[in-house]
Design brief:
single chain, mainly alpha, 93% helix
Length: 74
């Protein structure tokens, strides 16, 4: 049981590090877009990116909730 918990904790830590790297990359790309595009095009791109991000987040969230519900029902 201890080993399983240690593996889960390590996986959570790894996932958090990956998310941090993704956040840093997003900020970098966002800055590049801001410097490259005019205001109108940047605003359009930002809206589209935000909508896509929200859709992806909600899909992943639903999947995780379904997994948890399935596990909790045992």
């Amino acid at each position: 049981m201890k080993a399983e918990l240690a593996l889960v904790r390590e996986r959570i830590a790894w996932t958090r590090r990956q998310l941090c790297r993704v956040d840093e990359r997003i900020l970098s790309l966002n800055e590049q877009l801001w410097m490259t595009l005019n205001e109108e095009h940047y605003a359009t791109a930002e809206r589209m990116i935000s909508a896509s991000s929200t859709k992806t987040f909600n899909k992943a969230r639903s999947t995780q909730i379904a997994k948890f519900t399935k596990l909790a029902s045992f």
